[in-house]
Every structure is written in structure tokens, then in C-alpha cells.
Amino acid sequence: MTAAATVTCGQGGSTRAVAYLELALGESLDTSAEITIRHQLGRLYDEAKDPKALDHLHRAWELSRDLTDAPAIEIVEAYATALFHAALLEQAGEVCRAALATVDQTCDYTSWLRLEAAALNAEAISRRNRGRPAELRPVVCGATTPAQRAVLAHVAWDAAVRAAAGHREVADLARRAIGGTALISEVGSASPVFIYAGSALAWTGEYQEVDEFATAGITAAVGSGSLVGVAYATALRAGNSVYRGAIDQAETDAHRVLDELANVDPMCFAMTVGWQIEVAVEREHCAGAMSMLEHYGLNGELPDIGTIDTLLLSRARLFAALGNHERALADLAEVSERGHRSAYLNPVASPWRSMTATVRSLQGTFDTRCRDLLEAELTEARRYGAPRAVGQALLARAQLRSGAAAVADLREAVEILRPSQAALVFAESLVELGAAPESGDVAERRDLLRTGMDAAHRCGSWRLVSRAMSALRATGARPRRPQVTGLQALTPQERRVAQLAATDIGNREIAEQLFLTRRTVELHLTHTYRKLGISGRAELRPALAP
């Protein structure tokens, strides 16, 4: 039965493999055979997000320890990963550290590194053992083996989130960890390592590379039937799209995770709620985002987990947009406290200082401390060097200054952001520069505002389009709101269907991947062709090009 299950699973038949293994488990087995079967069952159940995964893997882990005093590395990794997916982070780290105590680094170097990576998966977002990635860097910087690449992903992530290296150095570390297609083939997109590597690269501003990495992760996960992998890679692409200002793509991906993969991973879900809030603010749908938070029970106190910081930041932005300054400041104070405990203070990932100063200004309580926060964030952003972080800090300071000083900040932001991939922050810098009366004559300002409004429209930010139109009217112009046509007219589901159809797969395969009926796929494609003004599938690929 075990052999049949292995063959069936290798052919993509995980449901049948589970059935074979469950039957085998009912047979008379020695301890070694039971460990093997429970290990395989646990991994399959974990991929399918079945809670039975933890029971089987825990039992395999216990039996393995009883048998040899040092459980097999594969069992420890699988058990720790399942614990991670269930957000049992402290337990996941402890399982790995206990196993590490039984490994002789000099005799079993690869197992030692694999266990270090598995432990760091949990410890990074539970804010434990934070000095470890830097200690391991000299050992793994060569990135010549899968185990080295897995640990190097943590080195890159930690260096980014703590601003322990400049953005170019972090990008180099992340690229070496990713290793082209190596990391995906070695650990898959269901591994936390995939998220750490992709996030580190995103925080350097290399958004196109991250988009390609995330898309490859989605493709691999769909091919292997890994729901966790699809959720992780889709959430990574959603966040990366928020950073780059591709709001249409961010909306499409966030909807997929929240609508179709909500029960896959609680931390991935919470982070994606944050990305959906960012989309809602840009779409001027703040009331809907507030209703979403209440519906999911995420409007109150939130767990102290690193991924939750993203949701707290987005929630603070939403509260500020709704005029609830006290709630916004409370969330930002919580992010600050958590960040200081773990030294996760790089503004590229957590711009809480400029956000706090901006909210206090809106509240009418801006003071010297707020000015100090702004200066500290700008200094840190310049030291790290990622254009988006520097541009955001300059924008925040400019909005709290006036006259020539504000214009100087805005002009610097425009020049820094112009060659970058941070399209939305660049558009905002153009709009704010055009809105400043001291930035030039009326004709020059209108040109900046129209250019910024056009860029904001391409990004899908109706918030910034509205801001540009208001500033244009203040100059005496009579602007028209850009029409929502083409790609921006597609619903998230229509966009998902169209993207798959453009890869030349059939309607049946699209329906299976998106859990739809074939008739629903056909209707979505019909609506898409009409909105894009094309006659059929053959024209989809160029029509979907950004």
C-alpha cells in the first residue's frame, strides 16, 4: 500500500495516495513503517490544509525520537512546517531547536543547516533568536547548496527588515538565495523560505523580479496541487503589487486569497487582509474595508506575530482615512513597540514614524517629537537606499512643511523615484509637487498634475486621481475624471480567468484551478472580450500587457 501511495502521489493523485496510506496504517506495522506512513500522510494532509496533518506528524516525530533519540530531519522539517502553517510558531521553533541539539555540525553539516532554516522560519515572525541570521551569514554566503540557500533567504530578510545592510547588498543576498529557479524547485512556494526570500527582494525595490518569482511560485504550486503554495505566492504578489503601485493586480490577487484560500494559513490570510485594505484605500472604498475588518473579527486586538505588523500598518492607514485618528495612532504605537522589541525598524517595511507624524498633523497635535520621527525615518531610509522608502519619507516631510522647503523635498522625491519601479509613489510626488503653489507657474503646475493624474489612473489609484483633480481645479482648470476602461474595467475574477486563458490552457483547466464551473469561465471570458474590445482568446495576451 505504501509503495502504491508513493507512485500515485508522484503522478499527482494525492487524494488516492491518502486513501492508500490510511489503509496501510490499519495494517500490522513495525515502528519504522508506521513512521514512514504517518510522515507521508502528514505531508499530504498539510498540503491539503487538513488538520489531521498535525496529529500524524506529531506521532511520527514522537515515534522517531523513541526509535533513535534523534528524529529524522525530514520528519522534523515536515512537523515544524505544519506547525508554522497553523501559526504555532513557538512550538515549531522549539521542535527544531531540540533536534539541533542532537546534530553534530561538523559531521552532518547539511542537516544542521536545514534545521537552522526550519527554526528561523518560525523565529523570524515570533521575534525570537534574532541574532542568529547574522551569525550564520559567513557559513551560507556561498549559496551553493539547497540548505545554504534556505538559510541565506533568512539572512537577506533579516538584513532588510532591520536595515542591517544597504538595499543593493540585500538584493544580492536575496538573488543568491533564490538562485534563479533553484529555490522554488528545492523548497516550493509552500515553504516560508519562499516568502522570506521574495519579501527581502521586494524591500529592495526590484518589483519586476519579485513579480516573476511569485508568478513562478503560483505556477509550481498549481502544478503540485499545493493550496498553501498558491496562497503564499499569490499573497506575495499582492503585496509586491501594492509596493509597485499595480493596484489592479493587487486587488485580483488579494481577492483570490481571501475568497478562495481563506482557510489555508491564518498568517497569510491576515497579511492579505492588509493588502486588501491598501487596495480599498486607493479605490476610495474605505467603508467597505471597515466592514471587511469587522466581518473577519480583525477590528480589535491582534496577535503579536511579525506578519500582523503589516495588517496593523494598513489598518492604521484606513482609520486615518476615515478620520479616526485615535485608533490610527494606537495601531501605529503598537507597531512601534513591536518593532523596537525585534529591531524591525526599516521604513521600507514599516514606515510607522512618518505615518504617526502625518496623523498627528491631521489631528492638530504635530510637535517637535513628530518632527524628530520624520527626520529619523528619512535618515534611515537614505541609509538603506531603496527609492520607495526615501520617496515616501520625503513626501511625508514635504506635506508637513511649506514654501520652498516643501518644494525642495518634493523635487528630490520626483528625481529619486523617476527611475524606480515604485510607480504610485512617483505619481503622488508629481501630484503633490504640482499642487504646491511655489513649484512654478500655473502652466507648469498643471502639466505636473495632469502627468501625475495619468500615472495614478494607470496605477488604479482613484484616491490620487481625486487629489490631482482637486488640485487642478484649484488652478482654474476643469479636468475630467479618466474613464475606467480596458484592464481596469475587469473584475478581479475576470482578470484571473483572462490571465490563465492567455497562457493557452483550456476552459476546463481554468475552471479546475479557480474552482469554477466551465460555464462560469465562458461567461467571464465573454465579458472580458467585450470590455477589452477584442474578438477572442488569441488577442488576450497583448491586451493584458501592462
From TrEMBL:
Matches recorded under Pfam families: GerE (PF00196)
GO terms assigned for molecular function: DNA binding
Family matches, as InterPro entries: Sig_transdc_resp-reg_C-effctor, Tscrpt_reg_LuxR_C, WH-like_DNA-bd_sf
Domain (HTH luxR-type) ranges: 483-546
Family annotation (SMART domains): HTH_LUXR
Alphabetically ordered keywords of this record: DNA-binding, Transcription, Transcription regulation
CDD domains registered for this protein in UniProt: LuxR_C_like
GO biological process: regulation of DNA-templated transcription
The protein's name: LuxR C-terminal-related transcriptional regulator
Lineage: Bacteria, Bacillati, Actinomycetota, Actinomycetes, Mycobacteriales
